[in-house]
Amino acid sequence: MARPIVQRMIINLLLKPQPQLQLLKLALPSHLKEHSLVRFISQNRQLHKDVDVLDHTCEVSNYDAYLMNYKPVVRIMVQTLKEILDTTSIETNKIIADNPQLKKRTRANILNNYYNLIDAGVQKSTIVKNAWLLAHENNRLKDKLDCIKVLNMNNDQLIPWLRLTQEELANFVLYTQNDMGPYTYNKIEHLAHRLECSIEKLCKLTVRYTFLLKIPISYIDKKLNILHEYDVSNKHILKDLWVLRYSENHIRHRCELYKDTGNLEVKTWAIRCPLRVIAR
Prior knowledge:
InterPro entries: MTERF (IPR003690), MTERF_sf (IPR038538)
Helix content: 55-70%
Oligomer: single chain
Radius of gyration: 26 Å
Protein name: Mitochondrial transcription termination factor
Largest sheet: none
Family: Belongs to the mTERF family.
Keywords: Transit peptide
Organism: Lasius niger (Black garden ant)
C-alpha cells in the first residue's frame, strides 16, 4: 500500500518545475535515485520542459494545449502501460498491436483515462482486457463514466456500453431507467435476471440489438412468458433476440404452427421466417 503512494508522490514532485526537481533529487535516498520509475519520470520531465503537465492526481495546467501540440512518443507510452497495468513487455506489445490507436495518445492522456476508470470502480484486470478504454481522447471517457454513474451499478459490467458514442450512451441510460414502474431493478438488471445471463453479456447484446431497451419492459415480459410456455430456452432466445421485436400474437401463432408440424422443440427462427419455410 505504501509503495504506490510513494511512487505517486514522486511522480507528482518530479513533474513540477525544475528547481523543485533538483531539491527532490538531493533529498531522495540513493537507492530511490536509481529506481527505474524515478529515472523514467525524470527523463520524461526533460521531454516536457516547456509544458507544465501533471498526472491525474494533480491540477493540470494547459492540458488541452499539451494534447494538441505534443507529439506522442511510443516508447513513453509503452513504459506508461507497463507501469500502470503491471504487464510484461510481451503483454504490452500485444496490447498495442490489438489497440494501435494507443500509439496516438500521450502519457498524460493514458494516465488520465486510467485513473478515471479506477476512480469509477473499474478493476485493473478489466482495463487490461479492455485496453481500448485508455485510447479515449481528452475527457470523453470521463463524460461516459459520469453518464453511467447515475445507474449506481458495477461499472465493470457496463464496459461494453463505453464503446457507444456519448449520445447513444445517454439514450441507453435513459431507456434503462425508464418504464420500470413497480419493478425492483432497472431494465438491464431485470432482463439479465429473466434471461439468466450476466449483465455484462446482456450489455454486449444490447449494443448489437439496440432496439431491445426501447421495448417497454411489460411487453418483453409477456413475450418471454409465451416463449417459455412453448419451452423455448433462454439460451436460444439470447442467440436470436430479434424474436422480441414481434408482437405477442405473432409469437404465439408461430409457436402453434411450428408445433402442429410435429416438431417438439420450437425454434426461434420459426417465429421470424416466412410461412412457406415452416410448411416444408
